[in-house]
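Sequence of FXL22 protein (Hylia prasina).
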Amino acid sequence: MHITQLNWECLLHLFSFLDKNSRKNLAKTCRKLLEVFQDPLLWSLLNFHSPVELKKDNFLLGPALKHLSICWYSERVKVCNIEDWMKNSFQKDFCKRHENTVSDFLLDVCNRCPNLLSLTLSGCGHVTDDCILQLLKNCPNLKSLKLENCVQITDHTLQAVTLHGASLQTLQVDFCRNVTQAGLERVRKKCPSVMLRAERSASMIPDSKPEKRLMLERASRKSFQL
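Predicted 3D structure, token representation.
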């Protein structure tokens, strides 16, 4: 029995076990499998592990997308999550190459995936508050927003949650060192039903204000000497 003799439901089930590259390669073999690849039902969940993957053509974005995860775990994350004033020329050059990759992709999601239910971003150092604001506005059904180690996320994202996160049930801003306790308290007060987690966030010294960082470090050293 040839694979193309399977019914549509079986083919979709088969494709669901394959990664994005394998799905694309299988779709190249015949027209029917290409049509299966293009079925929106196959693309309700997308996981990416590198910004490079976002530029490939081995997936589809559309209204069927419900769950999106972009988690970048590598030593390079540390490079991109260092504030600009701390970067050397090599680090700045490296980050410049993909500065807008994730943000541009998320803006595309805003326009094409209005039924998104969950978004997880980890190590996405170039994602801005404005990008998350647009997502909240364009994806009104979003229930889970998990941000980890996204250095440019600030209290503006927390404010956007209070204004546009009507469906939100879970908010995580772990290791987002530029949010503040005041911003977190505002979310707790205005959105008491949201499950909020901010591990190692507001208690960390923000890198966006070097003069404040130096002042706190000097005070800490002085206290230790006393």
